[in-house]
Amino acid sequence: MSDNKLKIDRTALDSLLLKRFFYAPSFSIYGGVAGLYDFGPTGTALQQNLINMWRQHFIIEEDMLEVDCTIMTLAEVLKTSGHVEKFTDWMCKDVKTGDISRADHLVEAVLEARLDGDTLARKMAGLAVSADTAAAPAKAASAKKNKKKGGPVAAIQLDDEVVAEYKNVLAQIDNYDGDALGELVTRFEIRNPDTGNEVTKPVEFNLMFESSIGPTGHLKGYLRPETAQGQFLNFSRLLEFNNQKMPFASAMVGRSFRNEISPRQGLLRVREFTMAEVEHYVDPLNKDHPRFDEVADVKLRLLPSSVQLEGRTEPIEMTIGDAVAEGVIDNKTLGYFMGRIYLYLMSVGIKRDLLRFRQHMDNEMAHYACDCWDAEIKNSFGWIECVGCADRSAYDLTVHAKRTNEKLCVRENLPEPRVYEKLVCEPNSKVFGPKLKRAAKPVQEHLEALSDADLTAIKDALASNGKTTVTLTGTAADGEHELTSDMVTIENKTFTEYIREYTPNVIEPSFGIGRI
C-alpha cells in the first residue's frame, strides 16, 4: 500500500463498526443508498462529544455568536453566491456500463495502483536474487491481496521517468480542471478499474440537491451545501447584536448536503453530513488578531501550493509566526485560526504526524476564496481534507449586497476626517437620458462603479476622439453603448469623509465533523 495511506485492515474495521452499530447504511433493509448513513448509539455519542468540544473550544472560548439557520435555501441566494454555477465536480462515465466516477479520484486511484504495483515489482526483483523460488508464489499472493479502488495491484515495474511523472501528477491532482483531467485520462489510458472499459471525457456535475418550496413548484430551492450563507445573510443583525463592534465571529453547527458523484469511502464522502463553521468578520485593512501571539510558536506541517507545483508532497515544518512573517500564510487572522484548528484536532486525539495543512492551488480554489488551507488527516484512504480554513475576502457580503440593494457593511467614525480626491463621472441630463433612453440608468450605474483607471481611459478617449463605447453585461441593457463628450463630464473632486464604510473580509474555518 502507498506510503500516503495507513496500513489498516479496513474490511475488518468496517465489519466491527457495523456489527457494533457505530453506524450503518441508511435504509439498509431496502437495499440502502450510497452516501447516506445512520449513526448508532456509540457513533451518535462520539459525534456529539466532538461537537461539544468544538463549541467549548471555539464558541465559548472565543465568545462567538452562535446561530441556527434554515436548511432549505432559496435558489436565488445560491445563484448570487455562485454555487449554482460553480459548485461542481468533474465526472467520467463508463462507456459500456454507465458507471459514474469522479474524474480526479479515478485518475488518482489508477495511478496510485500502478505505483503500488511498481513498488511491489521492485521488491520482488530484489528478492529474486536470493530466493528465486519464492518469487512466483509471492507475486501471485500479493496481486490477489492488494486490491484497491484503482483496481488489482499488478506487480509491473515502471520506468523511473514514468514513476516520476505519476508522482508529479498526483502531487497536484487537485489543480487540474476538466480539460486537463481529460488529457490525463487519454495520455495515461485511464479506464474503469472495475470493468476495464474506457471512460468518457470529464463533464461538470452540480453537487447541490435541487427542490421546490410550496405546492406550486414555482419557487425553486436547494438543500444547503454549507451553513455559511445563512450567517452572511444575517450579518447586519449580528453586527447590531454585537453593538457594532468589529471584529467578531458567528458560528453554526448543522447539516449540509452535497450530491456526491461516487460516494465510496464510508463516512469520508457522504451526501448528508454535519458541519461546524465559523465566519470571522475582519477589517480588510487590518487582518491582525489580538490573540495571535498565543499560537505564534505553534509548529505546523505545511504543504504550500508552491511545493505541490514542483511535484513534491513533503510538508515543511514551520511555526505559525514564521509562516505569516514569510508570507506562506497570508495574514495573522488566518494563521491564528489555523493554530486554533490544530489545537482542537490535537485535543480530540488526532496524531500530529498524521496531520498536515495543505494550501489550495489556483485551479482548486473555491470561487469565493482568495487563500485556503485544508487540515488533512492521513488514514487508510490517504490524506483526507477534514477542515478547511479559507479567507473568503469580502466576496459573499459584496454579492448579496449588490443583488438585494441592502448594505451589508460596517460604518465606523474616523478619529480624524479623511480628505481625498476621486474621479467622478457626472452625466449631462439634457443629453444623457434622451440619447440612451432605457439604457441610461444601467449605463450610469456602470460608470459610477468604475475605478479611477477605467474612468481615466474613458476621459482620454472622449478628449481625443470625442466619443467612446462602454460594454454592459448582466443588466437589462447588455451590449455596447456609445458615449460622446457632451453626454458626461469626468473630473477630479475633493471629498471629506467623517465615517468610514467598508465591507468586512471573512476568515472561515469549516469543519467536517463526520470526517474527523
Structure at a glance:
The chain is an alpha+beta fold and 516 residues long.
What does this structure look like?
Helices cover 36% and strands 28% of the residues. It is of the alpha+beta class. The protein has a nine-stranded mixed sheet. A three-stranded antiparallel sheet has the order 4-11-10. Strands 6-5-9 form a three-stranded antiparallel sheet. The longest helix has 26 residues, at 103-128. The protein is globular, with a radius of gyration of 27 Å. The relative contact order is 0.12.
Which key terms come to mind for this protein?
516 residues, alpha+beta, 23 strands
Number of helices: 17
* Mean residue pLDDT: 89
Number of strands: 23
Strand content: 25-35%
Basic shape? globular
The assigned structural class equals: alpha+beta
Q: Report the C-alpha radius of gyration, rounded.
A: 27 Å
Largest sheet: 9 strands, mixed
Secondary structure topology:
Blueprint: H1 10-19, E1 23-25, E2 37-39, H2 41-60, E3 65-66, E4 72-74, H3 75-81, H4 83-86, E5 88-93, E6 100-102, H5 103-128, H6 132-145, E7 147-148, E8 151-152, H7 160-171, H8 178-187, E9 203-206, E10 210-213, E11 219-223, H9 228-233, H10 235-241, E12 248-257, E13 272-282, E14 299-303, H11 305-309, E15 316-319, H12 320-325, H13 332-347, E16 355-359, E17 371-379, E18 382-391, H14 395-404, E19 410-427, H15 429-436, H16 440-448, H17 452-465, E20 467-472, E21 479-484, E22 488-502, E23 505-512
Parallel strand pairs: 3-12, 14-16
Antiparallel strand pairs: 1-2, 4-11, 5-6, 5-9, 7-8, 10-11, 12-13, 13-23, 14-15, 16-17, 17-18, 18-23, 19-22, 20-21
Helix pairs in contact: 5-6, 5-7
Protein name: Glycine--tRNA ligase 1, mitochondrial
EC number: 6.1.1.14
Enzyme class: ligase
